[in-house]
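Dear all,

This email documents one entry for the complex benchmark we are building for the journal club exercise. For each entry we list the sequence lines for every component of the assembly. Then comes the predicted three-dimensional structure of the complex as a token string, followed by one or two observations. Please use this as the template for your own entries, and keep the labels exactly as they appear.
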Amino acid sequence: MTTFLDIILMDGYGYHVWSVLLIFLILLFINIFWVSQRLKKLLSDHKDLVD
Amino acid sequence: MTNKSPGVLDWILLITKRDLLISSKRSASYITPVAFFLIIVSLFPLAFGPEQKQLSSMASNIIWIAALLSSLLAIEGIFNNDFNDGTLEQIIMSGEPLFLLVIAKVFCHWLIAGAPIVVSSLLAGIFLYFSFENTLVLLFSLTLGSLLFSLLGAFGGALSLGKSPVLSTIIVLPFSIPVLILGTSCFNASINQQDYIVYLLYLGSLVAIGLPGLSVAIATSIKINYE
Amino acid sequence: MNRSNVFIAWSMKMGSPPGFFNWSTKWCFFIGLLSFLVLTVGLFWGIFYAPTDYKQGDVYRIIFMHVPAAILSQSILLLMASFGFILIVWRAKIAGMFVRAAAPVGASFTLLALLSGSIWGHPTWGTWWVWDARLTSTLLLFFIYTAIIGLYSSTDNKITADRSISLLSIVGIAIIPIIKKSVDWWQTLHQPSTFSLTSSPSMSYEMYLPLAICVVGFYLLFIYILLLRLRVEILYRERDTSWVKDYLNQRIG
């Protein structure tokens, strides 16, 4: 593994490995995003009740 | 005349008689599954073309797929009708072990919807240039398979009691697919002169596990919906 | 206090929504941080420093995400079935919330396993998908998760919904022996299991160690996401109680 680009591309297999990592991160962020949206809705509903 | 309080067997007989009577009056309940089955079977020659060799090689697989789809259709109202008119509540309140009554109900449903499909698979075989030497294997595996489809469909119906019928289809399909695979592998093995008894044993063991296991699950799921 | 009293007191505290919520507040952040560290170490080691496979080249590095996702997709269903059983037998409300919270996470991991396996299969097997035993049964596992989520959302009464999905999870674990054993029963394309906790690994230690670290990291990540979802679910279900209202007031102010 000589240059940085060699390490990233991995003889053309880099596309596969990085796309899997991307899918993993996307799924992770979808989960966390859903949680934060639900919490936000809870807080805003509560605020409407209180005000 | 002694006035004995009704026991389990009385309830089982009552449910069986009632279901058979209702289905015999409502001709749709025993005609629709068979009609649907035969229609699906005839879709395949219409779509793939009437070439004999091709159809005869796919015949048993088509029959299995059609059996699965028509059992999904037929199982729709198995508990919903009784749920809507309150009979199901009476059955629960009888105090008898619910899973036995469930077995009775599912078996009746199979007699009305599943068994005719198994019999009409012979007619379907004629449509598809089926080679009749392997008939017994097909009939036997299809009997076991349709029993399982009825049990699984009843489980889906019990979980989605009072809700949309598509939901019960979604629930049932992932469990029906292994049964489908086993059934078609059984037949393909028998065509190729390989060991098909293994698959029949698998199907039989699934029925042996599924009959008590799924009936308890169905009974629990019905009681869940009533709490 | 003798031990059974302590156990009963602990399980009462954990079984009640406010008790669990307060207990998990400090653990949530810690587990999140720990999972981030372990995963970074594991993935970095695996993707950059593990030796190149002699047969497959560098594409095998997908294993560091594919195998943990697959392991977790089955473990999560087992956990859901266990907690579902606790709900049905002991009526512990929080067990039902666990099943509800874990279902989408399990579906995500199963999806990751399927997609990563497909992307890995394309250069090595020459095809994006093949209907062999393990892939088909993992696809069925994904359908079971979808059915669980669909069943929950279409039931209006949430107590009934919890019990229904608990029952479906319990019946659903029937697919797991099919996934595990199908590769041994039928000679198919997917390789037989090489990752096991008890027997010695059949791959070199230099690949096995980062893989094991990734598995641990994924488990921690699952616990973190589960805690987040479970806490939000508790807040939502108990939103009419005073302790939740106080907590939300605290969050706003």
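Observations: Chains B and A do not touch (no CB pair under 8 Å). The radius of gyration of chain B is 19 Å.
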